[in-house]
């Protein structure tokens, strides 16, 4: 007999003893009710049955009968084998969706939850005590405020990438997102440029106080903030992660769903991950199931002036002073300037623009200047 059968047998013996003591007046009905954890009228009913049929009267009438809605054991084994081998890192709701969509296995949530608990395959959420915060209404119009952030994580299970993106505060639509190796200035500029090319210029941007956005000590010369200001985009700094909670919660959901989906599709490299993210995950899941209708149908996105070259805005701009021999120092090297201007530009500032592909150019008074790297001559070997 298995362990479950032994426990049932002991329960029946205990129940028989209690009811027998009640019949022999060794125990009151209230005491018997408390001992068995049932109502007093149930004790009376069990006592009558015991007097008529004996010990077998305490056995439930449906014992050893299978319920009409019982799921076949073979189906349970099939489901749990898929969960153990393939979908072990999916949450229960996500896993049920995949089982029904890809394997034509439809199970109720409570049944699946019970099976998953039996196998200790329940993916639990991390919960922390939260501070009470004032609720903030969504913006009324699309494009009025974008929450911009990056999410560093081991998205492919091995290397740490950073998913950089922006979510619209009015609709929760992901305006654009892309994987990069880091959350650097040029990478953030790349994402912002693609948002503008796709939707237009947003009214305001909500960011944290990381250095490349212009917060804290870099507030006066941050390149990302400077680029936004050139396009009249207001940059607002959040004082806490909770202040831009919409995109923080979005990262939690995306990590929870995207990582296991990339795993079962064997996506390991960044180009394939970006293709799946942008063309399937965001388009077919996020922007359909996780967005809301804005209070106003007006859009605050401004059209981009066709005369504006975004590549010349979303680049880093640094300055070097021209030496008396018309040279500048840049990145540890010496460069000669070939200025089309006839007069000397000694002690003037040259603007050096580094683009997203890491190429760079020199500008003076808005005009490009040709530069050439100076290679110092090798020193002669002195004989000993």
Structure description:
The chain has four domains: about 55 residues; about 45 residues; about 140 residues, Ribonuclease H-like superfamily/Ribonuclease H (Nucleotidyltransferase, domain 5, 2-Layer Sandwich), CATH 3.30.420; about 60 residues, no CATH class. The strands form two sheets. Strands 6-9-10-11-8-7 form a six-stranded antiparallel beta sheet, with no helix packed on it. By secondary structure, the chain is an alpha+beta fold. The protein is about 35% helix and about 15% strand. The chain has ten helices and eleven strands.
Tell me the structural class: alpha+beta
Beta-strand percentage range? 15-25%
Main beta sheet: strand number and arrangement? Answer: 6 strands, antiparallel
Q: Give the number of DSSP strands.
A: 11
In the CATH scheme, what's the topology name of the largest domain? Nucleotidyltransferase, domain 5
Distance between the termini: 96 Å
- In total, the number of domains comes to 4
Secondary structure: helix percent: 25-40%
Radius of gyration: 35 Å
Could you state the order of secondary-structure elements as H and E?
HHHHHHEEEHEHEHHEEEEEE
Strand order, main sheet: write it out: 6-9-10-11-8-7
| CATH superfamily membership of the largest domain | Ribonuclease H-like superfamily/Ribonuclease H
Overall shape: elongated
Q: Spans with pLDDT under 50 lasting ≥5 residues? A: none
Total count of helical runs of at least 4 residues: 10
CATH architecture descriptor of the largest domain: 2-Layer Sandwich
Give the mean pLDDT.
Answer: 84
Q: Which CATH top level class of the largest domain fits?
A: Alpha Beta
């Amino acid at each position: 007999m298995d362990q479950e059968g032994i426990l049932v047998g002991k329960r029946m013996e205990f129940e028989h003893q209690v009811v027998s003591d009640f019949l022999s007046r060794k125990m009151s009905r209230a005491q018997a009710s408390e001992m068995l954890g049932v109502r007093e009228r149930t004790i009376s009913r069990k006592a009558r049955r015991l007097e008529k049929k004996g010990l077998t009267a305490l056995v439930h009438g449906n014992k050893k009968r299978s319920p009409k809605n019982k799921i076949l054991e073979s189906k349970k084994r099939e489901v749990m084998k898929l969960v153990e081998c393939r979908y072990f890192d999916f949450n229960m709701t996500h896993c049920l969706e995949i089982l029904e969509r890809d394997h034509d296995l439809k199970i109720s949530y409570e049944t699946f939850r019970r099976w998953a608990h039996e196998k200790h395959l329940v993916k639990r959420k991390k919960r922390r005590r939260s501070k009470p915060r004032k609720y903030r209404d969504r913006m009324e119009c699309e494009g009025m405020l974008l929450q911009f952030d990056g999410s560093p994580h081991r998205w492919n299970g091995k290397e740490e990438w950073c998913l950089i993106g922006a979510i619209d505060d009015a609709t929760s639509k992901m305006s654009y997102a892309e994987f990069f190796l880091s959350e650097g200035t040029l990478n953030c500029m790349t994402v912002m440029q693609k948002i503008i090319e796709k939707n237009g210029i947003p009214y305001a941007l909500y960011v944290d106080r990381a250095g490349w956005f212009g917060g804290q000590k870099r507030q006066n010369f941050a390149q990302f903030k400077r680029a936004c200001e050139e396009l009249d985009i207001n940059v607002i700094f959040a004082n806490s992660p909770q202040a831009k909670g919409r995109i923080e919660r979005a990262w939690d959901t995306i990590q929870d769903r995207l990582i296991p989906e990339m795993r079962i599709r064997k996506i390991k490299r960044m180009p394939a991950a970006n293709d799946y993210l942008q063309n399937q995950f965001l388009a077919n899941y996020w922007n359909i199931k996780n967005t809301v209708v804005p209070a106003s149908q007006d859009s605050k996105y401004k059209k981009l002036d066709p005369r504006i070259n975004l590549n010349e805005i979303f680049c880093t701009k640094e300055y070097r002073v021209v030496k008396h021999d018309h040279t500048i120092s840049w990145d540890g090297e010496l460069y000669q300037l070939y200025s089309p201007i006839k007069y000397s530009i000694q002690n003037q500032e040259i603007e050096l623009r580094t683009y997203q592909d890491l190429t760079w150019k020199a500008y003076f008074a808005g005009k490009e200047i040709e530069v050439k790297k100076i290679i110092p001559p090798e020193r002669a070997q002195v004989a000993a």
